[in-house]
Inverse folding.
């Protein structure tokens, strides 16, 4: 079996598990849904669920995690001559423009309406992993041209923009992720200009 076919099957299984879990979270409640129920609904074994997702919480916001992997790949593909912050802003903004599947988003929002603490926990945890990957890519891109402080500060700042926008979008039911992202960036730039 080719690696492309294998990867496609893995992604199909992951999607099936996430879809089944979201449907159960909405219909019977997040707390009442068990991993065994998710596995049965998705037509897979319990171990398969855990192979794809370490926790039930991770399933809830899987759409964000998958998109972060795409963002890392796109960051690697940005021109090396481009300033790191410009590259990172472009990649994160593109992620916001593309948005998310509206049906899945409605399900996620329904769950977060009854379990709002999950948004903070999962968004923060996912962001830490994403930041680690961004740091590695920027260090690779900049090499000796960028200091550790610069790379770390740029990563934290840009990921903070995205985390804030995603939180407002998901929890406060904002209509456009990219508009919220642009507003967050604008507020940060304006505040920074006042400090200077």
């Amino acid at each position: 079996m080719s690696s492309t076919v294998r990867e496609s099957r893995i992604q199909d299984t992951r999607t099936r598990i996430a879809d089944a879990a979201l449907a159960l979270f909405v219909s019977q409640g997040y707390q009442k849904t068990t991993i065994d129920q998710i596995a049965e609904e998705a037509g897979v074994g319990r171990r398969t669920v855990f192979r794809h997702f370490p926790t039930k919480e991770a399933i809830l916001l899987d759409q964000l995690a998958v998109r972060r992997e795409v963002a890392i790949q796109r960051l690697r593909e940005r021109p090396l001559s481009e300033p790191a912050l410009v590259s990172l802003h472009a990649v994160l903004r593109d992620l916001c423009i593309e948005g998310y599947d509206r049906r899945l988003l409605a399900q996620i929002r329904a769950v977060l309406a009854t379990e709002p603490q999950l948004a903070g926990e999962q968004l923060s945890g996912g962001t830490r992993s994403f930041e680690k990957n961004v740091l590695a890519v920027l260090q690779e891109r900049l090499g000796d041209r960028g200091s550790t402080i610069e790379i770390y500060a740029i990563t934290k700042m840009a990921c903070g923009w995205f985390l804030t926008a995603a939180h407002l979008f998901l929890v406060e039911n904002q209509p456009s992720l990219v508009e919220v992202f642009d507003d967050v960036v604008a507020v940060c730039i304006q505040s920074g200009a006042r400090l200077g």
